[in-house]
Specification:
Sulfate adenylyltransferase; alpha+beta
């Protein structure tokens, strides 16, 4: 999460209290930023809205596939209050389709410059599972969690 504000603060709090043990990103986010997918064992820094480091996380699993392949465990482990997979998918589609999110990526050509254009189906996604790591030096700079 690169955008500061209340959503970021809620997600960081969920990481710190152990409620958020999974996350999902569109593959186009990585492509747009020229980043590779994280790998198991990789560590990165979680920063708050003021860009202060608050934790180091370590990736424990990475799966790539369409959103339709996510299960209820993924939905619950994201720690955002979704209780069903349908709720979780709807929440993610809404977030990724929101104008502010769309606008942040249109200059880089994420998908479209039209805020009302739906996400492609199936939307290829990266489902990641990190854990808060013991205090250590991260192997990467702040990542998509931050």
């Amino acid at each position: 999460m690169r955008l500061p504000g209340p959503l970021r603060d809620r997600l960081v709090a969920a990481i710190l209290d152990g409620a958020k043990t999974a996350t999902t990103a569109l593959l186009t986010e990585y492509e747009r930023d020229g980043e590779r997918l994280p790998s198991v064992g990789e560590r990165s820094v979680v920063v708050d809205s003021d860009h202060r480091p608050v934790a180091v996380i370590e990736v424990t699993d990475v799966r790539v596939g369409p959103l339709r392949d996510a299960d209820v465990t993924q939905a619950l482990d994201e720690g955002e209050g979704h209780t069903t997979v349908d709720e979780w998918r709807a929440g993610h589609r809404s977030f990724w389709s929101a104008f502010a999110w769309w606008a942040a990526f249109t200059k880089g050509g994420l998908i479209s410059d039209r805020a009302d254009q739906p996400l492609p189906r199936p939307a290829p996604s990266a489902l990641r599972r990190p854990r808060v790591a013991p205090a250590a030096v991260p192997t990467t700079a702040p990542g998509p969690w931050a």
